[in-house]
Amino acid sequence: MAPDQPKKKATKITSGRARRVLKVGELATSVGTSYLWNAIRAPFQSTGEREKALLDTHIKNAMRIVERSQELRGAFTKLVQMLSMRDDILPAEVLSVLSSVQSQVPPMDYGLIREQIRRELGKAPEQLYAWFDPEAFAAASLGQVHRARLHSGAEVVVKVQYPGVEDTVKQDLQNIKALLNVFTLIARDVMRQRVDPSDVYRELEERLYEELDYLNEARNIERFREMFADDPEVIIPSVYPELTSRRVLTMEYVEGYPLANVLAPGVDQELKDWIAKKYFRVVWRQVFEYGTLHTDPNPGNYLVTYHPKLAILDFGSIRIFPEPIRKAYLQLADALLRDDRTTMQQCFVTLEFLDPDQDPAPMVQIMKIIFEPLLVDRPYHPRDYNTVERGIEIAKIAIEHRIFKDPGHRVFLVRALMGLDAYLKQAGTVANWHREFRACVQRALELQRPTSRGKQAW
Questions:
Q1: Strand 138-139 relative to strand 131-132: parallel, antiparallel, unpaired?
Q2: CA 235 to CA 132: how far, in whole Å?
Q3: Are residues 196 and 331 in the same domain?
Q4: More confident: 442 or 190
Q5: Cα–Cα distance measured from residue 391 to residue 62, given in angstroms and rounded to the nearest whole number
Q6: How many separate domains does the chain show?
Q7: Which of the four pLDDT bands, split at 50, 70 and 90, describes residue 339?
């Protein structure tokens, strides 16, 4: 794992129901008022002036949200990070600013962390571990990570949840409802999307409580270890159950280079090509073979070891699709490759992209735009695919044909695919991505056939 050495120290999470309600209420009011003022001025502005004013308003409001999340920390910060995944609610400019919250959380004072470990595991860190580094080398919204060594000599990392963060969850979930009301108005008036705030709220609530439970994360880790047990090029760290609880997670330390460093300019292109293809296969295996998706593509969650191998580190944000959804995604991919529009239509309904009586042709058009680099049987440079331009094209089709359904599984899949797209562009790997994609689909189809005799090796 790569060291991260923040300079600020935070002693506790801002608490007190009244104080948090007041601060979030002020935020919702300022955001809502700014958009109202923008709407009042719009009739007196030219088209160019309106677009510039709206963009400025987006950026200012995103900065307001980031600043408040840094102050309130804890669950509210995590909720902001989750909202940064919702491309159906917020414009791209806002999402870009909100995504910066991930790396801006200062670590908590060691005395509070030590006491949290003692409460959770029954003993102080110096008793449980042969060595425990009091300096955190990574800090996030809900907890921070320390290096340690077991009495057996094994090197480990210890993820510790911030004391008091769970107490703020109910407060912050209620508080964020006010912001959701503002955001859904933005989705309606700016994004031309119909968004049910109750569905968004429920999704945020479920994901947040999952991430607060480190025993759940430990189960996720074991699930991924089983999924990729046949792939010697993927590393999933092992968990130490005797040193793990709901708020403390001890797992194997993995030595390697952060993904962002390896994809940086100047690194050997052959290594970048290996990473690009490996990450591509790993993502599609999750979708097609297991319906279990790692939904946080933050580069800090991945390492590249010296062998090389790809290591996945953080498993707090995992989405498990129901089996009919997994099968429908696999069938849809196969139908896209074969241009089988009848099967595509059936998949659109199963996936809840369309109602049974809707014309599938516009959605077929959207899918062909999204999967363009994977449908062309030739070498393709990822940077040739302009994500922003294609996104605008897709939005126009969706608005024209009133395609507004947005099931929860789509949000997380899009998040994972946006991460994949970003990494492929950074790597600059020119490859026949159609053949890579087809191989992933064919492997998954073969594995689910009753006559399949076992997993194929890559």
A1: unpaired
A2: 24
A3: no
A4: 442
A5: 21
A6: 3
A7: very high
Q: Are 226 and 128 within 8 A, CB to CB?
A: no
Residue 39 pLDDT > 70, yes or no?
no
Residue 119 lies in a domain: yes
Q: For residue 115, what are the CA distances in angstroms to 129, 145, 177, 249?
A: 15, 15, 33, 15
User: Both 288 and 433 in a single domain?
Assistant: yes
pTM score, whole prediction:
0.79
Is the residue at 287 inside a domain?
A: yes
Cis peptide before 197 (omega within 30 of 0): no
Quick check: 389 pLDDT over 70? yes
State yes or no: is 296 an active-site residue. yes
- Note whether residue 48 is domain-resident: yes
Residue range of the domain that includes 130: 109-161+213-254
Q: Is 15 helix (H, G, I), strand (E, B) or coil?
A: coil
- Give CA–CA dist 31/28, Å, rounded: 5
Centroid of chain to Cα 281: 18
Same domain flag for 78 and 154: no
Take residue 91 and report the two structure tokens written for it. Answer: 């414009």
**What does the block give as tokens for 52?**
């510039």
CATH label of the domain that carries residue 134: 3.30.200.20
Q: State the catalytic residue, choosing from 87, 172, 231, 296.
A: 296
Q: How far is CA 74 from CA 104, 115, 181, 339, in A?
A: 12, 18, 22, 47
Residues 137 and 194 in one domain: no
Amino acid identity, position 428? G
Query: Hey, which residues does 320 pair with through a beta bridge?
Result: 292
And the tokens for 81?
Answer: 């990070």
Q: Which two tokens stand for residue 384?
A: 């040739």
